[in-house]
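Throughout this review, each integer encodes one residue's backbone shape. One record appears below.

===
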Amino acid sequence: MTDDLVKRLRRTYRKEYAPTRSMCGDNSNKPFPFPILATEVPVNPDGHEAADRIEALQAEIERLRETLKQIEASTYPRPLGKSWRMDLSSSKHDRCIHDEWMYDTCEGCLDDFIRKALQETER
């Protein structure tokens, strides 16, 4: 539905055919069969701008859906605060920058992730 709307908004001109007369009678109400004499009439001067805005909003909605999927699956980034192992390899005993275990949900990391996603929206 939205794709059709965007296509219609991007259409800037429509063809209008001039009425003609025929030797066989009055055909003034019928369009001229050749598009050579057609004139292009502007349809909507703001159509491209509206279509661009709709496409930008669709992309933003898709980005925010992906962000929500990350939150639901708990795959959002958790910055490392304290490493459990000396070689800094990953461990479930690592702690985030808010001093929460990596295997527990950290409200601070979640808030930071959401705040960053919303700041990208405001740009």
